[in-house]
Amino acid sequence: MLSIEELLELEDAIMEVLPDKMLQILSRVNRTGELDDLLKLLELSDLLGGANKFDTYKDGKIVVVGGTEVKEEVLASIGKEFGIDKKRFEFCLDYNDAKKYDFRKMQYAPQYRVVLVGPMPHSVPGKADSGSIIAEIEKSDAYPRVERLMCGQELKISKSNFREMLQKLTDEDYI
After folding, report:
1. CATH numbers and ranges of domains, the chain
2. How far apart are CA 175 and CA 168, in angstroms?
3. Could you please report the per-residue DSSP string of 12-51?
4. CB–CB of 157/70 below 8 Å?
5. Burial of 127 (0-12, 13-18, 19+ CB in 10 A)
6. Does residue 92 sit in helix, strand or coil?
7. Is 106 helix (H, G, I), strand (E, B) or coil?
8. Considering only Cβ atoms within 10 Å of each terminal Cβ, which end of the chain, N or C, has fewer?
9. pTM score, two decimals?
């Protein structure tokens, strides 16, 4: 831990180089999805106002992640009933594969429209200090909209709740 004198010296050194490096730093943290974190740390989140909530493309990817017995082809054919091309879907339907799914690729990526989640392990990379990756992406403005596929009180991907969710999103004119 630094003493107060050392902190003051460090502050002076940082303030001297910061003006020349500020744009480079902001560009880097924006690209890596860490801009919100930096602004929160600096207690400057209000500088972005509503601008830190990014927009996604209405015709963007529909990601379906979580363990299920329902086959990818079946879910894609349900999507086809709603006029959704199978190329818009990105599926990761194996419980254990969901553990390795790279959710971070969706941060500030407007080509991802919505994430439909089912059961998956809690220990997934990218969950930060949240209890699960689902909680992490729900609370962060860096990710697209997240919808939980539920049967009763449990996460489950079924043909019926998948169809119901697509109906809901279509009715909202979201997808």
Report:
1. 4-50 (no CATH), 61-171 (3.40.50)
2. 9
3. HHHHHHHHHHHHHHHHHHHHTT-HHHHHHHTT-GGGTGGG
4. yes
5. middle
6. strand
7. helix
8. N
9. 0.70
